[in-house]
């Protein structure tokens, strides 16, 4: 048996008993979560934007900090060996990288005990590391907070569903019950997605920062070894 529906509007024939597939877009899914769900999803979107902004800002800064001429240290050692301290400082100023700033700090201490030079370089290195890691801790915070905010939405959604069941008087409104469940599920998924993205971004930045720190340490040791060489 074939049912005719809305023939005047040109609707297609739908076989009796055949279910019509219902689709749900992301926007509709978020809207179905009610006011509480949309507020929590909005907060998660803000956290996601902040996480992505910090990640790309830091990744470009770290990439710029890691760029250094392979011949830089050879030129520095050559200038220092010939007593051209001003030329060495000028070269450091032209390169403008964490490594060059550490070496420049050491150059300004030439003539003092090697331990004092090493201490000056270490102190300057701490400042450079602080600059490299600026705002990275925020990513770690977002990676932990976002899932918790999502779970908060889950709890709110379940409370709304239980409230509807308790006040239904035996007549449960499926739509209101579904709104609570939508809030629970969408906020959980949103929180986990934001948390995963922030966690991956944080770990990637940590790896990149560690490479720059290793580069700084290696060049600083090379500079100190050169100063310790017998003339």
Automatic annotation (TrEMBL):
MotA/TolQ/ExbB proton channel domain residues: 96-217
Cellular compartments annotated: Cell membrane; Membrane
Residues spanning the membrane: 36-56, 136-160, 180-202
InterPro entries: ExbB/TolQ_transport (IPR050790), MotA_ExbB_proton_chnl (IPR002898)
GO biological process: protein import
Pfam families in the cross-refs: MotA_ExbB
The keyword Protein transport appears for this protein: yes
Alphabetical UniProt keywords: Cell membrane, Membrane, Protein transport, Transmembrane, Transmembrane helix, Transport
Protein topology in the membrane: Multi-pass membrane protein
Gene Ontology terms: cellular component: plasma membrane
Family, per entry: Belongs to the exbB/tolQ family.
The name this protein goes by in its record: Biopolymer transporter ExbB
């Amino acid at each position: 048996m074939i049912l005719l529906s809305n023939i005047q509007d040109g609707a297609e024939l739908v076989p009796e008993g055949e279910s019509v597939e219902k689709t749900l877009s992301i926007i509709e899914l978020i809207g179905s979560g009610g006011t509480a769900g949309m507020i929590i999803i909005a907060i998660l979107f803000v956290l996601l934007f902040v996480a992505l902004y910090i990640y790309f800002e830091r990744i470009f800064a770290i990439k710029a900090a890691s760029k250094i001429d392979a011949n830089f240290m050879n030129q520095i050692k050559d200038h220092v060996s010939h007593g051209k301290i001003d030329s060495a400082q000028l070269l450091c100023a032209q390169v403008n990288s964490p490594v060059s700033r550490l070496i420049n700090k050491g150059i300004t201490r030439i003539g003092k005990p090697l331990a004092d030079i090493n201490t000056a370089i270490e102190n300057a290195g701490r400042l450079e590391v602080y600059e490299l890691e600026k705002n990275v801790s925020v990513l770690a915070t977002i990676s932990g907070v976002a899932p918790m905010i999502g779970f908060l939405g889950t709890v709110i959604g379940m409370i709304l569903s239980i409230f509807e069941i308790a006040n239904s008087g035996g007549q449960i409104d499926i739509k209101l019950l579904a709104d609570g469940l939508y809030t629970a599920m969408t906020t959980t998924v949103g929180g986990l997605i934001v948390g995963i993205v922030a966690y991956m971004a944080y770990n990637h930045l940590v790896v990149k920062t560690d490479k720059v720190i290793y580069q700084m340490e290696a060049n600083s040791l090379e500079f100190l070894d050169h100063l310790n060489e017998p003339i």
